[in-house]
C-alpha cells in the first residue's frame, strides 16, 4: 500500500513535469483503469486543447481531468450557464452535479449536440463553469431498464468511486510474479452449448471470462469449484463477452462467493444483464426452482461494472490488457482480446460471433495486431451447418407467414428477447412497409419491447445506417404502428389467440419457459397456425425436441396442471437469422485473420460440432486445434 | 467426527457378527488403510487359522489383530517364551515390546525362520504370550541408514500411531462429493527430465505423485504453487514412486508448507530417501546454496510414511485405491496404479521403468486388470534411443576396462549411488570371479556402499536368484574382497590416484557435484585413464556436456578455487546399463499391456523424446497420446 502511495506521488511529479507552469495538479488517483487528475485550474486545462491527449499518449492510460473541490461555479449558476452553451435541439432531459468528483452529468436526446464538434462544447462548458461534463443519451424509446440502471448507479456513485479506486490500486500494483506462462481452464461450454466460463491465468493474475447457465439443464452450472477458479474472492477481474444468459446468468453468484472486483463489459451489455438476470430470477421462482442468488447480487454486480467501448485498450491487471471488439452477435456483444505480459502472449475469446453483417450489426471484428491463441465458439461447427443467406431466409419467412395469413392462421416465433427479435422486427417492418407482406399486428411478448428500447439507447453499437434511422423518430423502425406489446397477461393472450391473423414474437427463444409456453397451449392445437424457429435450439431444450419432430409434449398449463399436448400446427425452421456464424462464417473468421492463431480451442458447440470444426480448422490452416472437455487446463507460452 | 464414530461402532458390530462367540472385540480402529481389531482373546484369535483372512475378504481391508491391554504375558516372561519358540538359526538381533499396541518387534538375520511356514511360528507366539509379533530383517551388510530410520520410527511410534489413526479416519470418511471426473495436473517433468510431480484429483480427493528436483537446474522445482496443488496442507495423500532425487528431493518441502498427511511408498524407498534427501541437503550446503528445507522436514516425512508391498490393493481415500507394482528401475521402485471411484477410471503412473529383467531386478510389471490412462516415462523415447543388449554392453565395458588396465590406467564411472552402482558391482564381481577381467580394486565413493547395504536389507525386492545369494554370506556378491569404500577423504583419493590400476564408482551419476568432481580433477588430465558413462545424462548437467564432446570444463577445486581443466582421458559411453527402458522397452511395455490404455501421457523426457514417443505410440496402438507441457490439467472420465 505504501509502495502504491509512493508510486502515486512519483506519478504526480511526472505529470506535473509534463504540464505548463500555469496548470496545477492537486491530486492524482486511479479509478479502475483510468488515471484521474484533479486540478485547481480546470478552466485553463480545458483551454489547452490537446494536453489530455498528450498525457494519454505519454502514460498510455485513459485520462480524466476533474476540478479540485472549490474551484467550480456554484451549481445553480453553472446550470444556467451550461443550458446557455448547449443548443436547444440537444434536448436536455436531465442535469445533475456531483461535487465530490466535480462532474456534471448531462442526459440529452441528442448527446452529439451536447458534445459539439471534436468535443468543443464540452471544453467550453469546463472553461466557463469549471465542472467536468459527462454525457448520456436519453433513449428514444422509454426503457425502464436503462432508467433503473442509471438511477441505481447514480445512487451508488460514492461507493462506486471507492470500488474503482480500490480496483485502480489493484491494477497498478507492483507485480509479485514474473509472467512466464499463460493458462486457460475450461469451466463449462466444452462439447456442449451453455454455461460458458473460462479462467485465464498467469502467475500474477486470474481472470474469469463469462459465467453462464445451461438452457434446458439449469442444474449444470460452470465448474466454479475447481482450484483454478478459487478463491473466487481473489480473482483479479471478470470479463463478460455479452448479455445472453448462457454467458451471464451466474455472474452475480460470484459476488455471493465473496468476489468484490471489477466486471468488464460494454455499456449495453450492462443494461441488458440488468434486464435478463432479474428475469432469470423471476423465471426460476415461477418454476419453483430456488434461484442460485438473490436480486441483491445483481445490484452488487452492476455496482462493480466497468464499461469499455469497442477498441479501447485497457489495463485490467499489471500484466494484462483487455480490448473488446464488436462480435456482431447481439447488442454490445464483444470479442475479447487479451494481451499478456510484455509481448508474451495474445489470446482471443470469440464469445458468440456473427461474421457477416446483419440488419442490426456490422460483422464481427477479427483483425488484431497479434493473436497466438483463439478460443472460438462452434455452435454451427458441424460439416453440414450451412445457413441459407439472409435474402433467401427472409423470402422463406415471408412466404411462410403469408401462407399462414391466407389460411387465417397465426404465426408464433420463439426468439431470444435480445438479438433475434430485433432482427426479425426489422425484417417484418420492411416487408410490410414495402408491401411484400400484408400489414398485420406483430405482438411482442416477454421482454422483447424492453430489450428493443435498450437497443435504441445505444445506436452507436448498431449497424451504420440503422443508427441514423433510429435517431430520427419518424424513421425509427422499432416504433412502427404494427408492433404491440403483450402487456395484458393471459387475458390479452386469449383475446389475441381468438382474433385476427397476426405474428407473435415471444420468449424464451429455446422454448424452455416463459410466455411461449402459453402460446403453444393456445395456438399449438390448430393446424392453421404455424410455429417458426429462427434461432439455435440447444440440446436438452424443448425447442430442440419439437424441432426434432416431437409432437407430443408435456406442458404445465396456466393453472399449474401438467397436461399432455399434441402439437398440430405447422412447424418450420428458417435458418438464416441466427446470431451465430454458420460453419462457413466460422471458417472465414479464422481464414481472414492476419496473423492466424497458432492454436484454436473449439468450444461452445455440441460434441460433434466442436470435433468437426476442430479437425477442419486443423486441416485447413495447419494450426494446433482442440475440442477440449470441461475441467481441462491448457498452457500457452 | 461423530458420524465417523458411529460408523466405527457399526463396523465393530459387523465384525462381532462375523466372529464365533468365544472371540471378543474390545476396540476397532483404522490406522491408515489398515483395520485394527483389539481383542481380549488374542490367543484364541491366533488359534483360529483363517479367521483373519475371512475378515479381510469380507471387509476388503488389510486387518491387524492386536491384544487388548492387560491380556498378554509380561514382557520378561514373554521374551523367554518367544526365544524358545523361534529356531536359533533365525538369529534374533533385537526384540522389543510395545505395550500400547500389544506388539513385539523381532529383528532377525533370517526373518523367514521367525515367521515359519505359512506364518505358523507367528501364530504360535501369539497363542503362547498374547503379543502380536512384527518381524524385521537385520541387513547382512550393516547399514547406518536402515538402523537410523528404524530407530527413529521406534522413537516416534506413539506419534506415528496418532497420525495413522487420523489418516485412517480421513480415508474412511463419508465422501462429500460424487466422483464423476478425474484430472491430472503436470507440475513438472514434462518435456524435460527432472522435477517429476503430478496432482491426481477427483471432486473428493487430491493426491500428489512424486515431488522431485531437476538435476543440473536446482532452481527449477515442481510448480507447487498452482491452484490444483493447493492448499498443500489439504492434499489427501502423497505417493512416491521411487527414491531418486528427481522424484523425491522436494517431498519434505510439503511438510514445511503444512502438509501433515500420509506418504505412500515401498519400505526400501523409505530407507533410501532417508539416505538421499539428507545427502541432498548436505550437497546444497556444501555448494553454498540455501537448501529449500531443513533435515527436520525429512524426519517429518519419515514419520508420515506408510509402506506398501508390491501388489497390495490399498484404500488411500474414500474414492481411490492404490496398488504399487515392481518397476524394475531401482530398489523399491514402483509403478503406481490408481483405481478411482467405483469402477469409474484407472490410471497408471509408470514412474521410471525398466521393462526387461536386469541382474538386480525383475522387469517392470505392466499387467493390470484395467487401465484407461497411462502416464509414462519417456527418457529414451527418441526414434534412435535403442540400447545395446546387456550382454554386449557388459562385453564392451569389460573390454574398455581391460584396455585401460593394460595401459596402466584407471577407470572412473559416474553412477547414481542407488541402482546403477549395484548393477555394475554385480557385473564386475562376476567378470572378475570368472576371470573375464583381471581382479583389481573397485573403489566405491560417495554413498554407494551405504546404498548397497540397504539393498541387502530388502532381498525380497531383488531379482529371484540374487535374493538367495545375498542371504548366504559366502555368496553375497556385494561382499567381495575387491570392493573398497573410499572413506579417507581427499587424502585417500590422492593415494588411489597415484596408485595401481583400479576401477572407481563414484557419485554423482550426472557429474553435477559430489566426489566425482575430485576424480575428474585427479584423473581427468591423464590420457591413460578412462571415464565411462553408463547412465542417462540429463540436459543441463556437466555429464551431458562432457558426453557431448566438451573437453574444457570449469571446476571448483578442493580448495574452493575455480579452475579450467582440460579433460584428456578417454571418454566413452556404454549404453546397456541404464535403469530406464530404451525405446524398444517403452514400446513393449505398452504393447504387452492387456487391456491397452485409451490414452497415454508421455512425460519425463526431453521434448524430442516425449514428442517422438507420443507420435509413435499413437501410430502403433491407435490410442490418444500426448506430450504435455508443465502446468497443464488433463481430464479423464
Automatic annotation (TrEMBL), chains A, B:
SUPFAM superfamilies: Metallo-hydrolase/oxidoreductase
UniProt keyword terms in alphabetical order: DNA-binding, Endonuclease, Exonuclease, Hydrolase, Metal-binding, Nuclease, RNA-binding, Transcription, Transcription regulation, Transcription termination, Zinc
Binding site for Zn(2+) 1: 242, 244, 329, 352
Keyword Hydrolase annotated: yes
Note on cofactor: Binds 2 Zn(2+) ions, which are required for nuclease activity.
Metal-binding keyword on record: yes
Stretches the record annotates as KHa: 5-72
Ranges for region KHb: 73-140
Binding, Zn(2+) 2: 246-247, 352, 604
Pfam families hit by this protein: Beta-Casp, KH_TffA, Lactamase_B_6, RMMBL
Record-given protein name: Transcription termination factor FttA
